[in-house]
Design brief:
The chain is α/β, with parallel strands linked by helices. It has one domain (about 10-240): Rossmann fold (3-Layer(aba) Sandwich). Helix content is about 45%, strand content about 15%. It has helices at about 15-30, 40-55, 70-80, 105-135, 155-175, 190-195, 200-205, 215-230, and strands at about 10, 30-35, 60, 85-90, 135-140, 180-185, 240. The chain has a seven-stranded parallel β-sheet with strand order 3-2-1-4-5-6-7, sandwiched between helices. Strand 4, helix 4 and strand 5 (about 135-140) form a beta-alpha-beta unit. Helix 1 crosses helix 8 (about 215-230), helix 3 (about 70-80) packs parallel to helix 4 (about 105-135) and helix 4 (about 105-135) packs parallel to helix 5 (about 155-175). Bound molecules: NADP nicotinamide-adenine-dinucleotide phosphate (NAP). NADP nicotinamide-adenine-dinucleotide phosphate binds next to helix 1, strand 2 and helix 6. NADP nicotinamide-adenine-dinucleotide phosphate (NAP) binds next to helix 1, strand 2 and helix 6.
Length: about 250
Amino acid sequence: MGRLDGRIAIVTGASRGIGRAIAVELAREGAKVALNYQSSEAMAQEVADEIRKAGGECMLAKANVADAEQARAMVKSVVQKWARLDIMVNNAGITRDKSIRKMTDQDWMDVIQTNLNAVFFCTTAAMQPMVEQKYGRIVNISSMNGQTCAFGQANYSASKGGIIAFTKTVALELARSGITVNVVAPGFTLTDMLAKVPEDVANQIKAKIPLGRFAAPEEIAKAVTFLAADGDYITGQQINVNGGAYM
Ligand SMILES: NC(=O)c1ccc[n+]([C@@H]2O[C@H](COP(=O)([O-])OP(=O)(O)OC[C@H]3O[C@@H](n4cnc5c(N)ncnc54)[C@H](OP(=O)(O)O)[C@@H]3O)[C@@H](O)[C@H]2O)c1
């Protein structure tokens, strides 16, 4: 028996990295999981194969969540297939790192659209069946860099800080409907996103992490699963999974 048997989940950005680990972990606990991705079809298929091989159930849910229509249609298609929605994990995210002197309007808008506006699109679509069911668990993936600063990440930090503020207000508004809304804020985690950081910079970052290493995606997934499975009296909160890098 899994802790999430009978639950229906959507994970955005589930083809790679942290989203992949979250999807696999939720499925391992018994949830049926919709794997959202934007373009990495083959990788999303690999995640689906891994879940099915372990006896889990899942579906692919391709959509650009930065597009309001696509995001909402994606959520609707999952609810149509499985007749309910219990867990919405807003994980998809991008970086366009540049110092503020070099950051273009496009760099700013791309990051805000994908990292913050998409969370609004998916949350407002997901909350409809959740309100009817009087049950829902929404987990938004922010970042340590939305809580503190990081050179070259004015757009990213604004989007991730925005997620935290958004989460608290939505948690307040949806509490009476049995819906909890929380943030998991990872520190530096071993994924393609971190691989974009030059090696010398990555080594400097690592040297400052009290636990002395980067996170594995599975360590972020455990916090998400905890909120989904055991977080019944937790709402409007942030769980920081950052090796002590921000206290
Ligand atoms: N890695 C870190 O150090 C770190 C630290 C703190 C927070 N985070 C946050 O954790 C989340 C996951 O990061 P990650 O490191 O796992 O990233 P990643 O390895 O770069 O993977 C990003 C995922 O997001 C998907 N995605 C991007 N834009 C999308 C869109 N418009 N619509 C649908 N899917 C989209 C990608 O899909 P495709 O494969 O189809 O492109 C991919 O599945 C992000 O929100 C990130 O900001 C990461």
